[in-house]
Amino acid sequence: xxxxxxxxxxxxxxxxxxxxxxxxxxxxxxxxxxxxxxxxxxxxxxxxxxxxxxxxxxxxxxxxxxxxxxxxxxxxxxxxxxxxxxxxxxxxxxxxxxxxxxxxxxxxxxxxxxxxxxxxxxxxxxxxxxxxxxxxxxxxxxxxxxxxxxxxxxxxxxxxxxxxxxxxxxxxxxxxxxxxxxxxxxxxxxxxxxxxxxxxxxxxxxxxxxxxxxxxxxxxxxxxxxxxxxxxxxxxxxxxxxxxxxxxxxxxxxxxxxxxxxxxxxxxxxxxxxxxxxxxxxxxxxxxxxxxxxxxxxxxxxxxxxxxxxxxxxxxxxxxxxxxxxxxxxxxxxxxxxxxxxxxxxxxxxxxxxxxxxxxxxxxxxxxxxxxxxxxxxxxxxxxxxxxxxxxxxxxxxxxxxxxxxxxxxxxxxxxxxxxxxxxxxxxxxxxxxxxxxxxxxxxxxxxxxxxxxxxxxxxxxxxxxxxxxxxxxxxxxxxxxxxxxxxxxxxxxxx
Amino acid sequence: xxxxxxxxxxxxxxxxxxxxxxxxxxxxxxxxxxxxxxxxxxxxxxxxxxxxxxxxxxxxxxxxxxxxxxxxxxxxxxxxxxxxxxxxxxxxxxxxx
Lengths: 496, 97
Known about the structure:
The complex is a heterodimer. In chain A, α2 (23-41) packs antiparallel against α3 (49-60), α10 (302-317) packs across α12 (352-365) and α10 packs across α13. Chain A is of the alpha/beta class. The two termini of chain A are 37 Å apart. The longest helix of chain A has 22 residues, at 370-391. Mean pLDDT of chain A is 93; it is low at 1-19 and 486-496. Chain A has an eleven-stranded mixed β-sheet with strand order 1-3-2-4-6-5-10-11-9-7-8, sandwiched between helices. Helix content of chain A is 37%, strand content 12%. Chain A has one domain: Alpha-Beta Complex (Amidase signature (AS) enzymes). In chain B, β1 and β2 form a beta hairpin. The relative contact order of chain B is 0.08. Chain B has a domain at 6-44: Histone, subunit A (Orthogonal Bundle). Chain B has helices at 6-15, 22-39, 73-77; strands at residues 83-84, 89-90. Chain B is mainly alpha-helical.
């Protein structure tokens, strides 16, 4: 594994200090920060302080083992960690301690990273606000009355609040990019098949991706280069060679063609978002990129087809939670049959949104409705892919806002599922197509709420995608702004 | 008019092995109806002759049928709510009378 750029900015995310603090110092600083902000944010489900410090001491005693040597990281709590509870923020997994570790996590640790904790999410990744968690909602570090987005909201809040410089998330319909956008950080969803899902609790297998959340594109590139690449334990893992990201981050976007689907950016998009988006395009143009209008006629149908496909797959994937092999089991009563046990276990263990999606998925797969809903959605999915294939004949990258609005209030959309789903209007396409896609900070609404720019690239062309995103960060400072929560409480020592 | 009746929702819950409360049945009847109304828009699209996409990888995902290392029986039984580890069994309510 190669170091991406001399003086990679990873350490800055933790301490704001240049140089090389030891692993123990880095972990202590990260845990101290966590202790300060966690009461306000509720970003973590599990903190692994002792395990992290033990590992840090071992790393300090060894020669550097990889590009993330001594870097504290956080993991979305749907990634399995051997010996450490993994909940998916669901009651149905209470008590579950995986006997194995996800490949992406193994690779982070093999590169020297130190896991300090597991972060909150919408149960099984189902949601856009981290409010659908059996462990309570996470708050946005920029405004504690608002959501951090979701479903990787805990990971996004932890990075935005400068607890860790890297967190892993998962993205099925935008769950890395949307919270990254709403928290003012970077979120990368690589190409489908790039990062092994072995050890990721499955939600919708044709749409699920793993990727990093960071403050800089350079850090996201390091993390991606560590976790990406073929894994025989995931049958959908791609053997396509990983790009040389060291060579890719040149800052050169001269002549790069950036496509903008104008017709898709109409109704329902906040004026502050449109303004920041227009300014972002000017930044690229000033570096020599060409802005080209494109048409994605089926992209507007992304949400309905996404919710038909992801719920169908979820109803199948979540059938395994039945109270037999792991997790919650209902308290058995006299004369309970196996069927009673299944039904009561699942009713008690799953939250409302998960049940809603299992029900919708069961319905669209049931006899008589399969062709009208599920098959139809799969056909329109093909039309969306063709739209992008056509667009990439004339452009290198597609740009949109990440979300139609900045972060919304806690509770604002919980009673209306369709309103909540509409948050994902710009992000679902990359899951339906498998295209690599990234959200980077591109501005602020008033009052200070971050706005995200989403760039989407060709299949397996993370190199061009990250080059464009990194070039943007060379000319802008949005990513250097931390929430005031972060500034007020720097550097207090760890208690006890 | 709603696309789903309360009876439909009850039937789906049975298929999904979910024992819903009366309140949940009412709520889901309304909300699933709203969602289905919203997704109706795609039914108007012409998809004649369009291949469905079930996954975006253009290759088979089968692996060789070769034995390899797996988790042990003890590891797999270790998370069970009820098990007989010495017999290597998960325990569930009586199935056959």
